[in-house]
Design a protein that fits this description.
There is one protein chain. With 156 residues, this protein is α+β, with helices and mostly antiparallel strands. The protein has one domain (27-147). 43% of the residues lie in helices and 18% in strands. A three-stranded antiparallel beta sheet has the order 1-2-3. A hairpin with an 8-residue loop joins β1 and β2. The longest helix is centred in the first third of the chain and has 45 residues, at 27-71.
């Protein structure tokens, strides 16, 4: 009979149980180091997209508030003034910086039972919305129409 010496597998070779010995040590750490910057970039882009959506919602809200304020006024001149002041205040309270900000009230149908529309256009810098300092700007525009109460008086 022969010699009963044990046979050891060479490093990096598969053992009988399907495990590898020695060849993959540290590869998970290396992969993590390589993929972490990419994951951070994707995360920051998701945050920037979320902030852009939030800014769009705030412009929609400002247009709605401005139209409602204009519909409560007693004359078209006051309606235009109230709409502008309300939209500016709504955007300022949410810390939305527009450059430029355009507020266009339409008071052509300003009669009892009529309606008043307000369009708000806000150009926001993309670098202000994200931590990445993305170049460029996005113009967000929203229009809202509010009815004027049929049974209320309107000034001359």
């Amino acid at each position: 009979m022969g010699d009963h010496t044990s046979i050891r597998p060479r490093p990096g070779r598969s053992t009988g149980r399907g495990r590898r010995t020695g060849g993959d040590r540290g590869s998970a750490a290396a992969e993590l180091v390589l993929i972490t910057p990419l994951l951070m970039l994707v995360l920051l882009l998701i945050v920037a997209a979320g902030r852009l959506v939030d800014a769009r919602l705030q412009v929609d809200s400002a247009a709605m508030q401005a139209a409602r304020a204009a519909s409560l006024a007693r004359d078209p001149a006051t309606a235009a003034t109230d709409a502008t002041a309300t939209a500016q205040a709504a955007l300022a309270s949410e810390h939305i910086t527009c450059s430029p900000l355009a507020i266009s009230p339409d008071t052509a149908g300003f009669i009892p039972g009529g309606q008043v529309s307000v369009q708000v256009s806000c150009t926001v810098s993309l670098s202000g919305l994200s931590l990445l300092h993305v170049p460029g700007a996005e113009t967000l525009t929203s229009q809202f129409t509010s009815p004027i109460d049929t049974w209320r008086g309107v000034g001359p």
